[in-house]
Amino acid sequence: MTSAFLEEAPGGGFRLGLQVLALARLTRKGYGFSGAILPLMKKLTQRFHQTVLLTRRVGDIIVCVEREESTGQYIRLSYERGTTLDINAGASALVLLAWLPEDEARSLLTSRELRKFSPNTLTDVDLLIERLAQIRTQGYAISYGEVDADALGIAAPIFDESGTVVAALSIVAIERRLPESARPELIEALESAATEASRTLAVIMS
């Protein structure tokens, strides 16, 4: 069975359909949200010289809506607008699940086969549910090589006025190029930007 997001590949199996890119375009246009968040993303890239992503969840698909890179960034990470991410791996995906009711998160995680990209990728649903609880407690997610072996991801939630997580703001870096001593400052700045993005969204929606 295919859907608007999948199509049969010529050599067998499935590949992403064109609707994924259309979805990303529509998501970016929604309520002017994306354009309002871009200045916050630019400030983060200028300050830390790392890739900053804005992602949203549509069903069991995570979509990269916006990406910002620093002009002084030596290593590029291949997260393009319209890229889809797996629901069980990486800081962005997990933040977008962490504030869901547990039964809804569990249903999403059991609705499809979970891929293991590296030894650090969790595919056990019970362990993932525990991980989501930890993320809610600390207020952000951090992942080490869960999707790309050398990548470190840090993500914070963006809430709408009802308290629902509607997007994730994240920084993706090459782990060896981001010293552990520099991470607390980055996390604090990312959380602050996500809080500001939540306030911006509340104004747009009011």
Layout of strands and helices, then pairs:
Layout: E1 6-8, E2 14-16, H1 19-29, H2 33-48, E3 51-58, E4 61-68, E5 84-85, H3 91-98, H4 102-110, H5 125-138, E6 141-144, E7 151-159, E8 165-174, H6 183-205
Antiparallel strand pairs: 1-2, 3-4, 3-8, 4-5, 6-7, 7-8
Helix pairs in contact: 2-6, 3-5
What would your notes on this structure say?
The protein is globular, with a radius of gyration of 16 Å. The relative contact order is 0.15. It has 206 residues and is of the alpha+beta class. The protein is 39% helix and 23% strand. Helix 2 packs antiparallel against helix 6 and helix 3 (91-98) crosses helix 5. The strands form two sheets. It has a six-stranded antiparallel sheet, sandwiched between helices. Strands 1-2 form a two-stranded antiparallel sheet.
Note the overall shape: globular
How far do the termini sit from each other?
40 Å
- The unreliable regions are 1-9, 12-18, 26-31
Q: Give the overall pLDDT as a whole number.
A: 83
What's the order of the H and E elements?
EEHHEEEHHHEEEH
Q: How many β-strand runs?
A: 8
- Radius of gyration, in angstroms, nearest whole number: 16 Å
Secondary structure tally, helices: 6
Strand order, main sheet: write it out. Answer: 5-4-3-8-7-6
Oligomer: single chain
- In percent terms, what proportion of residues is strand? 15-25%
Largest sheet composition: 6 strands, antiparallel
Sheet/helix structural class: alpha+beta
**Percent range for helical residues?**
25-40%
Task: Write a brief caption for the model.
By secondary structure, this protein is an alpha+beta fold. 39% of the residues lie in helices and 23% in strands.
